[in-house]
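Bit of a strange request maybe. I'm writing a small parser for structure token strings and I need a real example to test against, not something I typed by hand. Could someone generate the tokens for this chain?
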Amino acid sequence: MKIKYIIGLCFLLSFCLLSYIACDLAVSIESRVEMFITDLNTNRSGAYVNFLPDDPLDYDAIKPAAFWELPFTEGDGTPYTYSAGDLNTSNPSNVTLVLYGPAAFAPPKTITFVMIEDGLSWYIRELYKAGNPVIPIP
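Reply from user aminoacidic:
Good idea to test on real output. This should exercise your parser:
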């Protein structure tokens, strides 16, 4: 009797642990956009992880921090800090974010993300800054 109880308890604990891990691994659209902005501000060489590696984009090309310099330094090479404004996630194919930056960035720009879901997580598939492609799908 005790063995059945222990086995049942182990099964229940395993199920709860796996459920917790699965929820912890899920990344919402809002979280993915926030992670991308954080990477732009603190670790541009890590920004590529917000994109799905199996997607048809040139994943290796977006890995270097230098890739992000042109669209997000306003052409002068200075790694500015950006802040997020209004975020609209109602349509995963057209997620918009108002992005604020320094005077060289003014006025605030609308960043458009095309998102793709993979399992429990959302990734960026395409990225546009003020309507201009930063990461289009070929």
